[in-house]
Amino acid sequence: MIKLEHISKTFGDTGDGVHAVKDVSLEIGDGEIFGIIGFSGAGKSTLVRCINLLERPTSGSITVNGQKLTWMEKQADGKSCMRTVSPQELRQARKKISMIFQGFNLLMQRTCLKNVCFPMELSGVPKAQAEKKALELLDLVGLKEKASAYPAQLSGGQKQRVAIARALATDPKVLLCDEATSALDPTTTNSILALLKELNQKLGVTVVIITHQMSVIEEICTRVAILDGGEVAEEGRVEDIFAHPATDAARRLVYPGGVSAKQYPAGTRAVRVSFNGGTVYDPLIASLAIECGVKVNILGADTRNIDGKAFGTMLLLLPDDPNEAAKALSYIRSQPNITAEEVEYHA
Ligand SMILES: Nc1ncnc2c1ncn2[C@@H]1O[C@H](COP(=O)(O)OP(=O)(O)OP(=O)(O)O)[C@@H](O)[C@H]1O
């Protein structure tokens, strides 16, 4: 379990410094794949780097794998001050909290095998034992045949696989992924996300992913926190956030293009249909035509399929005939897992 309590981080002076993270509290369960998403500058990297104290928070308590890494302590003058574990305890704790990065951070003069051996060398694991484990890990990430290749000879996706193998060398319980797929093309991104999901299931490792791409969250996370201006704007199950993005930040991330009615002429009647997790591709438009004899046009759509369920919104043009429009509206409203609102038009 990762428990963050009232984490704040200010760079520079507390007065006029940058408040990168403001009073963030989160709990991430063992074995979860948890996403932290936000726009550039929202404080994602800073927050995730607080989890392993690569960044020391200004205040707040951090507990990882049952161990308090920072905590607040009352002083004689009544003020609270932050305490941290000793450097030696932190080194031990970090073995169980690995991290991968957007830029892979591989050692370019070392072969893939030696890169994976590196954390084991630091821990004093005998060479033969380290090499045996490194080969197993390279096999696990599908790159055994690249053991003696150098990072420069690998593609971006392969480099990230080596970085993942290296991150697993200390048998971590937590894997922090800082924009780990942002430098990769969509196909490679998907293969790395599939690998992370597989490792989560096989090894039970807790995965924390920070990203600015909702598609990454959608692909593998079960829960997500949305950071906005250093604060948690929203937190919850991915499908709930997709169904009902309650904050402006969530709406901008979930539906960046939005579905706007403003581009259509005044007087047009339309209905905004929100899909709240029913079976995907329920043939709403077709059944409107067949069961009600009403034809509607799709003006815009921004829908997503998450685990076989439909989320998102669709803007439908209602027929000019008021009776037909009423019929269509009442049919749409009678459908399960759908909400419908008539859209107001402005000239
Ligand atoms: N070392 C630093 N010194 C001063 N300010 C910093 C430092 N690191 C981050 N910041 C500031 O803290 C804020 C949050 O930055 P952070 O990198 O955590 O955001 P982010 O959400 O990860 O952004 P991005 O997606 O662009 O990486 C930004 O305003 C940034 O300029």
UniProtKB/TrEMBL annotation:
One of its GO terms (biological process) is amino acid transport. Keywords: Amino-acid transport, ATP-binding, Cell membrane, Membrane, Nucleotide-binding, Translocase, Transport. It comes from the Bacteria. One of its GO terms (molecular function) is ATP hydrolysis activity. Residues 2-254 form the ABC transporter domain. PANTHER family: AMINO ACID IMPORT ATP-BINDING PROTEIN, METHIONINE IMPORT ATP-BINDING PROTEIN METN. This is ATP-binding cassette domain-containing protein. It comes from Dysosmobacter segnis.
